[in-house]
Each structure stands twice: as structure tokens, then as C-alpha cells.
């Protein structure tokens, strides 16, 4: 069983609308897989299904060999939502130590997680006084501190400067090198090139599941932004053909 995530025929309806429309995809263990697509394409919904908090209409979501949301996955899957989920009236260090304790980890792991996200200098600062980008890194530290086998990160680099973004991507790859699996969403196409594999979704349908090089070679262009445009146009042409 090499896949950390296996999606089979995943269909999700939200607010009476079909938001994911029959997704089949697999995320290999020990990889950094990017989940890309325009705003509203269904990235967050797919991540919610993987962490087991989304009611699904049809299909199956298997995570680390178990159905998504099973109690046995509680300490094995980490999730960073788009809204920072940290306590404003605790310091960065206190937040990390609190989440570490929930996962049976100690102070050393908590302090390391804070350093890993570049917040060592602000460790003693109340989260409520941090900038937006710092607050989202504090939240990231809390998602990483339990050392989960699968880490699902919803737009973890939004609001970060280019140096920090590069540092965070290095950190993601260092984690993958130790066998951790990361599913990372972004709508910034330049981050796509940093991923081992890419899932591209548009309007709830998967239009690519490949490596960056595989996508370049399928589309015949080097620039991934342009490659995605071509894939999107090809999928639209295909759907127009289906409809006629
Ligand atoms: N609670 C909800 N109730 C009804 N519809 C929702 C709800 N949350 C999201 N949706 C709809 O589901 C669709 C997919 O949303 P989702 O948040 O998964 O997209 P996304 O790709 O993550 O977008 P973004 O990049 O802007 O975060 C959108 O059309 C959105 O309006």
C-alpha cells in the first residue's frame, strides 16, 4: 500500500451544488503533492474530504489505508486550514506546547516546530499581536508539531515573503524525505514547480494528475502557467464536445 491518499469516484455536493464531480486520484507516500486550481474549484472541499470533516455524496476516500475521518487517523493526519487556528491570548511558544501536549509530544518538539517555521524570534510574543503572515506560520507550527504521517496544508504560503516561502518549501521537502506525505494547496502557479506531483482541478473535476515534467511534456510547453491554461482549454473543449 504505497498511496497515502486514494480517492475513488469522489462526489461532493455543497449548498445544493455539485462541488466535486467524480475525482479519482492517488497521492503517493513520502511526496509533496500540489493541489492547484482557480478560486472556487474545490481544493478546500477536497482537503476537507481527506481529513474526514466533509460529508461526501458518493465515492470513497482512503487515508493511510483507513477510511478518511477514522479515529485511528486522529494523530496521524495534520490539517492547516486557511483561517489560522491558534489561540490569540497565548504566545507562539505556548500555542505550540499546547498542541504538542495534545499529540503526546514534549517542549523540545514544540520549540523545534516554532523554529522550523521561522518564528524563533517571535516565540514569546502573543499570537494576537502577530502579523497575518506570522499568525499563519504559528498555525503551521501547531499543525506540524504532532509529526503526523500525512499533512494537509490549505494555502500555507499565502502572505509570506519570497524568502520565507522558499524556506517553507524546503521544510516541506525535508519532511517528505523522512517519509511524511504532504498535500499542499495553492493557487499560485509558480509553487507548482516545487511539487513532486500535481493535481489540477477545475470546477470540481480533475484535469491533470502528473509530475511537473509530465505536464510540461504532455502540453509541449515549459512554463507551467501556460501548460495549465492549455489543459484547462483542452478540458473545456472536451466538455463542450460531451454536451453537444
Ligand atoms: N459551506 C459551503 N456551503 C455551500 N457551498 C460552499 C461552501 N463552502 C464552499 N462552497 C462552494 O464550493 C465550491 C468550492 O469551494 P472550495 O472552498 O472548495 O474552493 P477552493 O478551490 O478551495 O477555493 P479558494 O482557492 O478560493 O479557497 C465553491 O463554489 C464554493 O462557493
Characteristic terms for this protein:
six-stranded mixed β-sheet, 244 residues, 2 domains, single chain, 26% strand, globular, four-stranded antiparallel β-sheet
Structure report:
The protein is of the alpha/beta class and 244 residues long. The strands form 2 sheets. A 6-stranded mixed beta sheet has the order 6-7-8-3-9-10, with helices on both faces. Helix 2 (92-102) crosses helix 3. The protein is globular, with a radius of gyration of 18 Å. Strand 9 and strand 10 form a beta hairpin. It is built from 7 helices and 10 strands. Bound molecules: adenosine-5'-triphosphate. Adenosine-5'-triphosphate binds at residues 14-15, 19, 37, 39-45, 187.
| Structural class by SSE content | alpha/beta
- Helical proportion? 25-40%
- In the sheet with the most strands, the strands line up as 6-7-8-3-9-10
CATH superfamily placement of the largest domain: P-loop containing nucleotide triphosphate hydrolases
Protein name: ABC-2 type transport system ATP-binding protein
Organism: Micromonospora phaseoli
InterPro entries: AAA+_ATPase, ABC_transporter-like_ATP-bd, ABC_transporter-like_CS, P-loop_NTPase
Keywords: ATP-binding, Nucleotide-binding
